[in-house]
Design a protein that fits this description.
This is Class I SAM-dependent methyltransferase. The chain is an alpha/beta fold. 42% of the residues lie in helices and 20% in strands.
Length: 233
């Protein structure tokens, strides 16, 4: 990295690399599987939001789930008849997701309609328009800068010939209020899991020429987790 690069770009790279490092660990992948691959009430509400956002995406569609984490969405996407590509930056997450899928479905080999692979959301190896839908779940709240969010959105848009389903942390919730109050009391600036106003995200969408055609809060006014259906302009 050149010393002449802008400071804000250096900070963005630091945030990005820190996120990659934190999640690319075997113990984190194992903990995620134990906590996330259980159909809790919260996980059920999140899946219901994703299902609403996927309305109109027919059985047989090619769907990318990135980051797939420990693979909690894959059996659910399979039940909708999709051809699923589960991908993650972390090789540990990919391996855990693959194992979790095989064990939950009692199979020894992956079926033809399911594949797991390592990919970087900032620069994927997929062809333009390879997927009918791209799901980017629980990632953008780890990116505190517009540059990182926009690059991730731009790359997801590139590989989708259809829609994007993303999640972000909305300021329109009690949880977000508590979050900001905590950091204000500590006189610190948060850099992870930061709730933002929709108008801030709208600027990101405008920058990459995407439009929101559906909004699905997990628990309106309580939880910051909100899902959006995005389409090309």
């Amino acid at each position: 990295m050149k010393k002449s690069e802008p400071v804000d770009h250096l900070h963005e790279q630091a945030y990005y690399l820190d996120t990659c490092k934190r999640f690319d660990r075997a113990e984190v992948a194992s903990e995620y599987r134990a906590r996330k691959n259980v159909f809790t009430s919260r996980n059920r509400r999140e899946w219901q939001c994703i299902e609403k956002a996927l309305a109109g995406i027919a059985s047989g569609a090619e769907v990318l789930d990135l980051p797939c984490g420990s693979g909690r969405l894959e059996p659910l996407l399979e039940k909708r008849g999709y051809r699923v590509t589960a991908a993650d930056y972390s090789g540990h997450m990919v391996a855990t997701a693959r194992t979790a899928y095989l064990e939950s479905t009692h199979q020894l080999e992956l079926p033809e309609h399911m594949r797991f692979m390592q990919q970087d959301v900032m620069q994927m190896s997929f062809a333009d328009g390879e997927f009918d839908a791209v799901i980017c779940n629980r990632l953008l709240h780890h990116y505190p800068t517009p540059g990182l969010r926009q690059q991730a959105l731009r790359e997801c848009k590139r590989v989708s010939r259809g829609i994007l389903v993303i999640s972000y942390f909305s300021n329109l919730s009690l949880s977000a209020l508590r979050f900001h109050m905590k950091y204000r009391i500590k006189s610190r600036t948060p850099t992870d899991r930061v709730p933002i106003w929709f108008r801030v995200l709208q600027e990101d969408l405008n920058a990459v020429e995407l439009r929101c055609t559906g909004s699905y809060p997990v628990r309106y006014g309580l939880s910051p987790q909100t899902y959006l259906r995005l389409e090309r302009r």
